[in-house]
Predict the 3D structure of the following.
Amino acid sequence: MHGYGPMPQQPTTSRPSPATLTTVRVILVALTVLSCGLLGWAPMLRLAIVTRKPRDWFLLVVVVALNIGLFAFIMATPDDPDQMSDAAALFMMLWILGLLAGVITYYLYAEIRHYNTLGAPAPYGAPVHPAPPLPYQQQHLAPHQQHQPQQHQPQPQPQQHQRPNPYTAPTPPPTPTPAPQRLDQVRAELDELSDYLRKENKDSRDGEGR
């Protein structure tokens, strides 16, 4: 169980400058070529130390065994080249070329790939600011806050006032039927008509009496 203190930071492997890497590679490749592959274990040893992979350590043992076998084969051949058979000379030449090609190719490929995974080197003098650790109180409260369920309180919904629809025309109020006024007008006309008839009857009677 880990405490609430800051987590320990793992040490990161620093990457040398490109000039240093190029110089080391040139020296190791030159030693391998000039020694006809007998020093091929040197670049493989550096590669195994840099990458720290079991595969590279296993290949280092294989290269050392091939170098020992090549050295023993060379010592077993006669000093006079005329006394060496063509098959022995061809076998030794293929052995040397295969050892050179395999060691140099794999060493350069594996080391370049290893340093590419580390990323670009930091500029000289650039300070590295580690991330500040969380305070004890925040680290102590963070797990409890994650396990506490959030209580949902019902919020009162505001009353929604029904707004009139602007797209519907307002309904006009019902027009009252002018029944009383119409009746009054008809009654007045009938009264006038009756007065007129009475007047006519009176005039006709007066004319007959004369």
Summary: The two ends are 146 Å apart (CA to CA).
